[in-house]
Design brief:
The structure is a homodimer.
Chain A: H1 4-19, H2 27-34, H3 38-50, E1 54-57, E2 61-64, H4 66-88, H5 94-104, H6 110-119, E3 145-146, E4 155-161, H7 166-174, E5 182-189, E6 194-198, E7 204-207, H8 209-214, E8 215-219, H9 225-229
Antiparallel strand pairs in A: 1-2, 3-8, 4-5, 4-8, 5-6, 6-7
Helix pairs in contact in A: 1-2, 1-4, 2-3, 4-5
The first copy, chain A, binds a DNA duplex (30 and 30 nucleotides) through helix 3.
DNA sequence: TTTTATTATTAGGATACCCTAACAATTTGT
DNA sequence: ACAAATTGTTAGGGTATCCTAATAATAAAA
């Protein structure tokens, strides 16, 4: 909890690095992201360099070292696990979970995180569909993603569910959705974010937004728009 | 989460005030309690005075104002609710809960606390038998206490349970313990902290440590040692 | 290519927290 | 009552964060 600030810097560097894959993470970007001024950020960046948590220079910007990455990915992990816990176990809405998780992610207890992660059934994605790194900091394979992150027209294959849950598996079998089924997204109903699908027998299936978050798929078309849309 | 330090000072002033009812809460006491040096504490005390959260002078020491008390009791409330949640819902042991609750108590979300408090069934005491202030900061009536806080020989009357829980009520009826029963503590079994009681019919009852925490009683003897022992 | 706009960086200052050293004020014990 | 021990306070520093203002370095645009 003392490393609050430091953790937030490392997380920000990680996040900006992911968003801006080609671009460098500069001091000004970070300052805007963290609602601080460039000199403040620069000062901290220098101290992070001294601690061996990042490398920094004008041309490449800030890049996490192995040590810095491990801290950053762990904060991301905690954040996404708490978001999932708040959403699924404590009935918070999507819009509420982020702010509370911003605080909870800094609570330093591996045992606590392990416990709630296990209660949730070791999910691979949080309620927003973002991947949850495992304990070793490894993200679930990236072309595997929740169905909820689809665009209209996408043809995809069912690869699994985001976490263990018998009720959900029963729901799927009621909808006649099984592993390796190939589905086409016919319509995304904006009212409640539910999705209308077509299965291989050309049958129409409507799946709820909640279920779509838990159902993991992969696009079948090589250049599917889903990849660029998310 | 920014008021981390401030919250800890106010909590400490509250706690030392409770422990040392007749004595003043001096700068040195606080420094020892918080593992800081007196000048550091004094500096902060002055700032708390400026903010109107405490009154302070050499002879009376630090005394919380209404505003300061409200913050302090709220932190105590959060701490005890989290301890209870960690113990009961996440299966942490007594010895583990305190340290984690020290961090969680500073997470600022009334909705989160309300939620877990309600999931727990609005308990009046935490796993250590400490009273949980209600939302308005009022502590449960103090002569009502968990049976677990008894000394050998104590004669007491059953007043209720610390929180709603059907399984527990069934357990009590199995043991033939009912509201307003008068019980005598015959023995506290040090091995597992379970308690051997005698009811009015001179029947011997053994109650587990866990149940003893949830069963609320009041001493019948005016000068019962329970009061001074806790 | 030169002017303009955008970063990066340095200088200097403010506040929050913590500390040691030195001294003042109070108790305490005898 | 008076020396000894225990607080309370002031003075003076140190580090971490954060800021504004000014300057250097770069990139973008005309």
């Amino acid at each position: 909890m003392n490393s609050f600030k430091e953790e937030n810097y490392l997380k920000a560097i990680y996040q900006l690095g992911v968003i801006d894959k080609e671009n460098v993470v500069g001091a000004t970007d970070l300052a805007n992201w963290l609602a601080l001024k460039p000199p403040t950020v620069l000062e901290k960046l220098n101290s992070l360099v001294t601690k061996g948590l990042i490398n920094y220079n004008k041309t490449d910007g800030a890049i996490l070292t192995k040590k810095g990455y491990e801290i950053a990915i762990n904060i991301v992990r905690r954040h996404r696990i708490w978001e999932t816990y708040l959403y699924r176990q404590l009935n918070f809405s999507w819009s509420e979970v982020h702010e509370i998780a911003e605080q909870l992610e800094h609570v330093n207890s591996d045992k606590l995180i392990d416990k709630i992660y296990s209660i949730l059934g070791n999910p691979e994605f949080d309620p927003h569909g973002d991947p949850i790194p495992n304990k070793r900091g490894v993200l679930p394979k990236s072309d595997r993603r929740p169905l909820s992150r689809s665009v209209k027209g996408c043809k995809c294959v069912v690869l699994g569910v985001s976490h263990d849950n018998e009720a959900f598996l029963n729901y799927l079998s009621d909808l006649k959705i099984a592993l390796n089924d190939k589905l086409t997204v016919e319509q995304i109903i904006s009212y409640d974010e539910s999705i209308r699908l077509l299965n291989q027998k050309k049958e129409s299936i409507i799946i709820s937004a909640k279920a779509a978050e838990q159902l993991l798929v992969a696009c079948l078309k090589p250049n599917c728009e889903c990849k660029t849309a998310n």
